[in-house]
Specification:
By secondary structure, this protein is α/β, with parallel strands linked by helices. The longest helix has about 35 residues, at about 350-390.
């Protein structure tokens, strides 16, 4: 027998032949096996009903040969799978690693076992990491773990708690120093600004020309790591482990730490010089330290773990139930595509850094153009308002004159005027042509949406029908409402029955104040967005195979991706997977994200 014939015989497993063969009148469904990650496979069984059989195989029942006969295997990580179970995997099977912590190790094991269809399935965990870091900082600053331990002790609330409260700090006015520019670093910066914490950051990859996540404009970049350490009350590491970042906080760098600072590391333990950190904790230079997954004997000592200013987590900073559900939903979507469309899947890993790297350069170019052309944008708005109302014209001209006479936008202003004009740039090129920049004039809406005080002004500015420039008002994080164009009704998210699925409906007796009529805009790319429903738990609007508008998944796929056509007044939402699925709506922006602090504010 030739080598080619042997290879063809090996790749035709019983599992793959069972669902691809149509000769049998009642072909058996392919088997999907879950190993050490999913015991309750009810979600997978529901989504794959009529497509595949889903069974959980405990490691104690490996001898039943269900793994060998499966078409697909779901597991957490090959590294955590016993060797006896690894050897039962077959080359023709699709092996999905759900949320693996070390993909390179799994890939090496798969290559050693001859597994050619290993698929890594993961989603972005930036929000979880940022939430955990913020919680750790608050715990260290407010000493909540010590007070809780004291309340549960034998003495209870007897005596004074003032000694335990010594060292508690107020968040407002502190300085946070972020090392790295990952997506979690950006999310942490946004949260910290909401707590009135100043944000500094140092980009360890800047010298290599890498473009990573963009921070809010209120955050300030530090040229050197030593300068950041010397100025920060709170220090958080958000850089990947590379040859350049191993022990980025070594003994020499830690000499520049501000006395009384707090340190949090949710990344690799090799980013720190553990012995140097431990010595700073002993002599009091560091007021506290929190680590996610500490390694090494210096952290295993009992007296270190009992230190009141040390918090150690068991590698849980990036976990949440929402993340796990999104991973499972994405895995099911991959299996559906494989079994129904016979498409061999590839790695499906959502990384905010990778997505933002693709669009950040374009955003920087557009921002540069926006700064140069802001004069034209503001002037265009002024001319429109002059034609509409002489009263509003005089008011806008006064603001124009005030900015023209002082190009530096940070001069003396009242608090109210400062909020209103915080995002307006200088207007030193008023006399140049407006027609060349007609497509960019709508970008001036960012200054109108800067605070609720300016909603009346934004309402008085008409939008040209059919003009695409008005769509530039939409930003990632905006909250919008969708009104039907053929009648005075709003599109809302409704539940079919108690505990049932969610779908998009049209109702007359609702307003834009109703949470069911509000949707969060999430940009997948520059031209593709998703709409999350508040009442449906953040699920994305999608079109299913029965051409129904439903909310079924938290993770992005082509079914949940939409493109905009037209203007906000006459908008067409077109599905990327099925262009025949179109929503003719009128879009109204209800809340927008501030450029300065990244906080979403309602316009009314």
């Amino acid at each position: 027998m030739s080598t080619t014939a042997k290879r063809d015989l090996e790749t035709r497993s019983p599992a793959t032949m069972s669902y691809r063969s149509n000769s049998s009148p009642q072909p058996s469904l392919p088997l999907v096996v879950t190993l050490n990650c999913i015991e309750d496979a009810s979600i997978e069984q529901e989504y794959l009903a009529g497509i595949a059989r889903v069974e959980h195989v405990p490691l104690s029942l490996l001898a039943e040969a269900k793994i060998e006969s499966a078409a697909a295997v779901l597991l957490h990580s090959l590294a955590f799978l016993p060797r006896a179970a690894q050897r039962r995997l077959r080359p023709w099977q699709i092996v999905l690693c759900l949320g693996s912590s070390d993909r390179s190790v799994d890939s090496a094991i798969a290559a050693d076992l001859g597994l050619g269809r290993l698929v890594h399935v993961d989603v972005s965990r930036a929000e979880e990491v940022a939430d955990t870091v913020m919680a750790l900082f608050l715990g260290l600053l407010r000493r909540t773990h010590l007070l809780s331990r004291h309340a549960l002790s034998a003495s209870g609330w007897l005596g004074s708690v003032q000694p335990l409260c010594r060292g508690m700090r107020r968040c407002r006015g502190l300085v946070l120093g972020i090392i790295g520019r990952s997506a979690s670093a950006k999310s942490l910066a946004t949260r910290s600004l909401a707590f009135k914490i100043s944000v500094l950051y140092h980009d360890v990859n800047e010298e290599k020309g890498k473009r990573l996540s963009r921070f809010p404009p209120a955050a300030r970049r530090m040229d050197t790591l030593n300068d950041l350490l010397a100025a920060s009350d709170l220090i958080s590491l958000h850089c990947a482990l590379t040859n350049d970042t191993i022990q980025i906080l070594n003994a020499e760098a830690l000499q520049h730490v501000k006395p009384g600072a707090f340190l949090v590391n949710t990344g690799s333990s090799q980013l720190l010089d553990d012995c140097a950190v431990k010595q700073l904790l002993i002599d009091g230079t560091l007021a506290g330290c929190a680590l996610d997954g500490a390694e090494g004997p210096q952290w295993m000592e009992a007296w270190v773990r009992e230190m009141p200013n040390v918090l150690i987590l068991p590698r849980s900073a990036d976990y949440s139930e929402e993340v796990w559900m999104e991973i499972r939903e994405k895995a099911v979507s991959i299996l559906q595509t494989f079994f129904l469309d016979d498409v061999i899947p590839t790695d499906a890993v959502s990384d905010n850094d990778e997505e933002e790297n693709k669009t950040l350069h374009e955003d920087e170019v557009s921002d540069k153009q926006g700064k140069d052309n802001n004069t034209f944008q503001l002037t265009d708005d002024l001319n429109i308002n002059i034609k509409q109302s002489s009263a509003s014209s005089s008011q806008l001209q006064e603001s124009t004159l005030s900015q023209t006479t002082s190009p530096q936008s940070e001069v003396k202003r009242s608090k109210k005027a400062k909020k209103r004009h915080a995002r307006q740039k200088s207007m030193h090129k008023v006399g140049e042509s407006l027609e060349k920049k007609e497509d960019d004039t709508a970008m001036s809406s960012s200054s109108q949406f800067g605070s609720p005080d300016n909603e009346s002004r934004s309402k008085r500015t008409p939008v040209k029908s059919g003009s695409k420039k008005s769509l530039e008002m939409l930003k990632d994080g905006c909250v919008i409402s969708l009104q039907a164009r053929d009648r005075a009704a709003f599109h809302v998210s409704r539940q079919r029955a108690q505990g049932g699925g969610w779908f998009l409906d049209t109702m007359l007796n609702v307003t834009k104040r109703d949470p069911a009529a509000q949707f969060l805009v999430v940009f997948r790319s520059k031209d593709t967005i998703g709409l999350r429903s508040f009442t449906a738990g953040g699920k994305l609007l999608q079109i299913n195979r029965r051409m129904e508008f439903v909310f079924a998944s938290h993770s992005f796929d082509v079914w949940e991706s939409w493109t905009f056509e037209g203007s906000l007044e006459e908008c067409r939402l077109v599905n990327c997977r099925n262009p025949s699925a179109v929503l003719d709506v009128r879009v109204e922006i209800l809340a927008t994200v501030g450029d300065e602090d990244g906080i979403t504010r309602w316009l009314d």
